[in-house]
Structure formats: structure tokens, C-alpha cells
């Protein structure tokens, strides 16, 4: 096949750019969602140490065990109107939230499928903080499996750029 290695190299470069673009979108969504963290810290009972750990949420080694983290995630979701009157994820508002970020529409359908699946998987949990904790972990793990999670380096770089602006 003529041009085979060149064609393969072009496809690999294009695929790499697409993955990089997905990571940028996920970084924007993560940082946007994270803006409510300070607002929710006191309400959820997060300690300063837990606040610092929160920045490692996309790391596969991060453990979703503290109920306070689930309460913070629930509060943050409420802050952005992502929770309905029944204390469940509001899928339409979550979709709009994702699409509100630059190029968010490119990942919205995929992310919403992940959100729906994770939300459904833990719908039986009565405690809203623990349900939100498990849903958050499920979303994180699924995003990691699908190589959608932003890198820590990218998150920190964007966070620094935002704080300097």
C-alpha cells in the first residue's frame, strides 16, 4: 500500500489531537464544576486536607470513601442546578452544563451516557451523600477506562492560568 506508513502516522497524529481535545474539554468541565468547591466546603464538612486531596480526584489511586466528599459533590451539583427536587441528577441540566464549555457539545452525549449509567447503578442508595460519592467514583472510573480523564498536569496548568487571570 503506497503511503502506508505516512497514512498511519497521520491517523495516529489525528487520534492524538482528538484525545488531547477531549482532555481539554474534560479539564474545562472539571475546573468549572470545581468552582463550587469552596462554596460547599463548610456545608459538607470537608477538612483542609480533604480539600487538597480533592485536586487528585482524576487519579486512579484517589479513594472515594469519605461521606464528606459525597456531600461536597452533592452540594456542588446543587450549586449548578444539576440536582432535581427529588435529590437526583437532573440530566437535562447536566447536559446543558457540559455543553456550556468550549467544545462541550463534542463530549456531551458520551458523558451523559456515562452519567446516566452511573446514576442508575446507584439509584437504590438512600443517603444522598453516599449515592453522589458512588456516582462520582463511577463517572471517574469510566472516564479513566475510556481515556477521557484530564491529566493532573493539564488541570494544574489551567488552574494556575485561571487564578492569574
Question: How is this structure best described in words?
Answer:
The protein has 165 residues and is mostly helical. The chain has a single domain (4-164), classed as Pheromone/general odorant binding protein domain (Recoverin, domain 1), CATH 1.10.238. Helices cover 70% and strands 0% of the residues. Helix 1 crosses helix 8, helix 5 runs antiparallel to helix 6 and helix 6 packs across helix 7. The longest helix is centred in the N-terminal third of the chain and has 31 residues, at 4-34. The protein is globular and about 35 Å long. The N and C termini lie far apart (51 Å). Residues 6-19 have low confidence and may be disordered. Belongs to the PBP/GOBP family.
Characteristic key phrases:
single chain, mainly alpha, Recoverin, domain 1, 70% helix, 0% strand, globular, PBP_GOBP_sf, Odorant/phero-bd_Lep
SSE pattern: HHHHHHHH
Query: What is the CATH first-level class name?
Result: Mainly Alpha
How many strand elements?
Answer: 0
Instruction: Give the overall average pLDDT.
Output: 80
Family: Belongs to the PBP/GOBP family.
Keywords: Signal, Transport
GO molecular function: odorant binding
Protein name: General odorant binding protein
